[in-house]
Automatic annotation (TrEMBL):
Residue ranges of the TM segments: 18-38
Signal peptide (from-to): none
Record domain Thioredoxin-like fold: where: 68-241
Entry similarity comment: Belongs to the thioredoxin family. DsbA subfamily.
Taxonomic classification: Bacteria, Bacillati, Actinomycetota, Actinomycetes, Mycobacteriales
PANTHER family with a match to the protein in the record: DISULFIDE BOND FORMATION PROTEIN D, GLUTATHIONE S-TRANSFERASE KAPPA
Name listed for the protein in its UniProt record: DsbA family protein
Annotated CDD domains: DsbA_family
Keywords for the protein's UniProt record, in alphabetical order: Disulfide bond, Membrane, Oxidoreductase, Redox-active center, Signal, Transmembrane, Transmembrane helix
Length: 243
């Protein structure tokens, strides 16, 4: 048989395979990179750099059942925000919208009733971290320093501060007190936290908050409620501007 009658594999077939394979890799890489960019943009803080509330007209006070009200007296609307200091989704919400919400509070567009709960106590290393964080929040609010409360609230949910669920450690009262000092809270607030003066009452208030959450129809935390309507704040990144 002459050599010209033999089958000679054509290099074009292999070249096409490599080209198609390379295109597939590029498509996958683009999807992965696009997904990473989308996720980063999704979690990027809105109004980044603003910080906590700054307007001297903003007031903070403790209402019935330990609810902390933060806002101007002439706020256009008031929302209820239910959170647990151990809740990672609450931290996600605070990281994404906290500074945007602070600006809206400063501008008088909204006031916030913070209901801090403790149903994730059992997932903390100490077994009572959420309750102690509720108490610390009340200690700071009791001083009437709105700016310090706003900054302390943000600090509780900051990635570098929030204890991991089922983690090996959380924060002692002394560490919570230092966190409050760093947020600008007074020595009286720090002492209140260190001594655990409000812990027993905080447990009672947190249970009342749990019952209030259940009454809204929300299924968990974080929950944002305006005029009895639950807002899907985690899915709708524009919820603050739409209040």
């Amino acid at each position: 048989m002459s050599s010209k009658n033999k089958y000679n594999p054509q290099p074009e077939s292999s070249r096409s395979t490599y080209i198609l394979g390379g295109l597939a890799v590029l498509v996958i890489a683009a999807l992965v990179i696009g997904g990473v960019i989308w996720q980063n943009n999704r979690s990027k803080p809105r109004n980044e750099g603003y910080g906590g509330v700054q307007n001297s007209e903003v007031q903070v006070s403790i209402q019935d059942n330990g609810v902390v009200l933060l806002g101007r007296t002439d706020a256009a609307t008031t929302i209820d925000l239910f959170e647990d200091p151990m809740c990672p989704y609450c931290a996600e919400l605070e990281n994404k919208n906290g500074q945007e919400l602070a600006k809206a509070i400063d501008d008088g567009k909204v006031a916030v009733r913070y209901h801090i709960l403790n149903f994730l106590n059992q997932l903390s290393a100490s077994g009572d971290y959420s309750t102690r964080a509720v108490a610390a929040s009340q200690c700071v609010a009791e001083t009437g320093d709105a700016s310090a409360y706003s900054d302390f609230h943000a600090a509780l949910f900051a990635p570098e501060n929030q204890p991991a669920e089922n983690g090996d450690s959380d924060h002692s009262n002394e560490e919570l007190a230092q966190m409050a000092r760093d947020a600008g809270a007074s020595d009286d607030a720090a002492q209140c936290i260190t001594t655990g003066a409000k812990v027993d009452q905080a447990a009672i208030d947190a249970e009342a908050g749990r019952q209030a959450l259940r009454a809204t129809g929300a299924t968990g935390t974080p929950a944002v409620v305006e005029d009895g309507t639950v807002i899907d704040a985690l899915s709708d990144e524009n919820w603050v501007s739409q209040l």
